Amino acid sequence: MRFRFSRDRALLLLGFWRGFRSDELCRLRIEHMTVQPGEGLTLYLPTSKGDRENRGCTYRAPALHRLCPVEAIEAWRALDQRPNGPLFPAIDRWGAIAETAMNPGSINKWLRQLLHKAGIEAPELYSSHSLRRGFAGWANANQWDVKSLMQYVGWRDVQSALRYIDGPNDFAAFRALK
Q: Among positive and negative, which fits the CA dihedral 89, 91, 96, 100?
């Protein structure tokens, strides 16, 4: 149970704060990761949907004060002592860690079960892209410009980015007055 909780926390936080696709999360490998405690995390993906030349992409995730993906990854790695292999392995119903990664197709089911357990209404309306969309919405609400968001997430064209960003929040200006 503690393996699953720790892995799921790391998967959720990294998936959100990096805006990763489900296949990217499932292809992350321990040996392609560097953690700098209190500073951040560097991840290398040899291939990705946005990497059309197959050169590989390096992604960074900063350490945060709350809901920190770096701290969550460190806690997961402290439990999961494997020196290499998938960062997010499958875990069977008895809590045994598999040698294989989670299947990208299982991420939707995993997320919906997690949201259901958290008491979120209509978890079936969410998918793995909800993490990516959620991050884009958070970045937009926190005044990230589209170019910075595109570079961070890995979008190459503005139209792709704009599909993930909802309209302006009419109440955002009032929050600043509190």
A: negative
Q: Exposed e or buried b for every residue in 49-61, given b needs 16+ CB within 10 A?
A: eeeeeeeeeebeb
SS3 at position 98: strand
Nearest one of 63, 64, 24, 62 to 44, comparing CA atoms = 24
Nearest C-alpha neighbor of 28 from the set 45, 41, 14: 45
Q: Give the pLDDT of residue 56.
A: 86
Q: How many CB atoms lie within 10 A of CB 170?
A: 7
pLDDT of residue 176: 47
- Furthest-apart CA atoms within the chain: distance in Å: 51
Residue 91, exposed/middle/buried by CB under 10 A (0-12, 13-18, 19+)? Answer: middle
Domain boundaries, position 81: 2-107
Same-domain status, 13 and 89 = yes
Global pTM?
0.87
Domain containing residue 46: CATH number: 1.10.443.10
